[in-house]
């Protein structure tokens, strides 16, 4: 019963003297291998936000501390890391890179909590966007702070449908749950919104295994594509775009993750006006607080040559802090109940955590990679002299999708 969970958790907290001093948050993401730069960028963003919260006094007088562990973008490695965190008594876990890892963690956290009601864990997902995670695989102990792949594709295809120059689209994605979801939703949504558009190719490739995308680029050219839709991230995106640039491929790229580590550098001048992304935030949305965050990251990490890109990570920590303050507890169950339905004012406007499936609703932005210094492009990315310019804003209410989640709540 709910009362049993709360009583057991309260006892565990009372027996833990460290809990009143430090609130530890486990970070499980790739810190080695082909996606290490993405994980390291995400970790730096969290460390920046945590430092700011600690500087203003922490949460109910307690300091926050991040405990980073390497997932290697591998589900089993992530579960090993989760075990290390539970052994250390860490009660909160954040992760974002790889929906395959996210699915494993969500299941692992649920099983752990069922076996250990006095030592429950809360899993806060900032970037793994397979729609299943808040639909048929939803889990009370999992909250997602990024829009799912279908929500993003809804916004992206609305924009694409209005571009009359698009005739032939090639889909290329990583061969796992997220990439498969991007391919499926792109086909279905484009068919409804622009039935005249032809899907001239649809490739799925191994995650993090392809070192040379030239053969894929050759197929894209041969198919006569004018546009490429990809959910690729990390090295799989930067190597794809680099191969296209080397081959003189003249297409527009419609992406989810062109702005994350390595992407802007690999895209370079050849991508100016040809690479677009759908995101919940980017550095040039124009808000003064947003500008201050970009500058704070660059000041704190002057040698990283990358940028703060995950506003979701800030929302994770700020909303977690608000939930702890409101519930007057660090018990994950009480915090989870406080998160359900929570509204929070961030740089992009009000965001809301859905109570029925634990999916955050927030505005989204379509933006184009272009020369910095142009109107609307105050900040470049990765010191390339190019940054993202907002083309359109989609309000949170217009990103809402139906859910098949049947939440099993703690008894």
What does this protein structure show overall?
The chain is an alpha/beta fold. It has 2 domains: 2-147 and 290-361, Response regulator (Rossmann fold, 3-Layer(aba) Sandwich), CATH 3.40.50.2300; 150-279, Response regulator (Rossmann fold). The chain contains 12 helices and 15 strands. It has a 7-stranded mixed beta sheet, sandwiched between helices. The chain has a 5-stranded parallel beta sheet with strand order 2-1-3-4-5, with helices on both faces. It has a 3-stranded antiparallel beta sheet with strand order 11-12-13, with no helix packed on it. α6 (177-193) links the parallel β6 (168-174) and β7 (198-205). The longest helix is centred in the first third of the chain and has 20 residues, at 36-55.
Helix and strand topology:
Layout: H1 2-14, E1 22-29, H2 36-55, E2 63-70, H3 75-87, E3 92-95, H4 99-115, E4 122-125, E5 142-144, H5 149-161, E6 168-174, H6 177-193, E7 198-205, H7 214-222, E8 227-230, H8 235-246, E9 252-255, H9 263-267, E10 275-279, H10 288-300, H11 311-327, H12 332-339, E11 343-346, E12 349-353, E13 360-361, E14 364-371, E15 386-394
Parallel strand pairs: 1-2, 1-3, 3-4, 4-5, 6-7, 6-8, 8-9, 9-10
Antiparallel strand pairs: 10-14, 11-12, 12-13, 14-15
